[in-house]
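Submission checklist for the structure archive. All mandatory fields must be present; incomplete records are returned to the submitter.

[x] Identifier: HTH-type transcriptional regulator DmlR
[x] Organism: Pseudomonas antarctica
[x] Residue count: 296
[x] Sequence attached
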Amino acid sequence: MRVFTRIVELGGFAKAADSLQLPRASVTILIKQLEAHLGVQLLHRTTRQVSATLDGAAYYQRCVSLLAQLEETEAVFSSQSSPRGTLRIDMPSGIGRFLVIPALPAFSTQYPHIDLEIGLNDRPVDLIREGVDCVLRGGLALDDSLVARPLAMMDQVTCASPQYLQRFGLPHTVEDLAGHQVVEYFSSSSGKRYGLEFQVGEGIRLVDLPKQVAVNSADGYLAACEAGYGLVQTPYYHAMRQLQAGSLVEVLSAIKPPRLPLTALYPPHRQLSPRVRVFVDWLVQLCARPGNGLQR
């Protein structure tokens, strides 16, 4: 059943075999035996992809529910009460580098039998297809098919480099931004482009400025700002070190960008997983600590 679910999620026998660290021939034999045992065809096989039949899709839903319950039951009655196994998580590179990974040794000490596979991406991840157990995401674009656990509201800052401000001047009001330019951030998956936003009363004021450089990664976004290409808005934790070192300067500090929610997301059938549960609970505690850079 585990092999079958991984084939459906990853869309191929070879990918499932690699994910489960099994010989590809063994995966093929197991599925043939499973189909013979059930007396139905579970998978459509072509030279390009593998997909579930109608019976296979129904069987998949039962499998993921049963496997989650099995894992929960084993965790309750096992003589080893500590959760164990591999936990696959994905998060923005900045969150991983500056917030989560530096604190992870404490988690590993508390849960020594959990092995972590960490992806650092700014792109959206298909949790089911890519076999990811949990993702951290900033912003409001959430998937209704996933369980969402709020972690924090992140403060943002508007920044520029000292050399940029020497050229364009220091703005004191939103109106002073006329004649300035931005580093534009764009999503490589959706194509959406982001400029400057400011919280004004209960509403959001958008400011459209010209750009010379556009980037699709958070690290590149900040690097272009340091290079003098324009103004940016970023979570405070991401720019905190540059602000302290003086390579970036906060501007318009009295007119704040809107705060960004930070959320943990995971598939509904994995909410019973002890590994996911203890990791998300640990994240809640981590994000509540003072001085972590999520709030000023």
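[x] Structure attached
Curator remark: Residues 42 and 57 are 8 Å apart (CA to CA). The chain has a mean pLDDT of 88.
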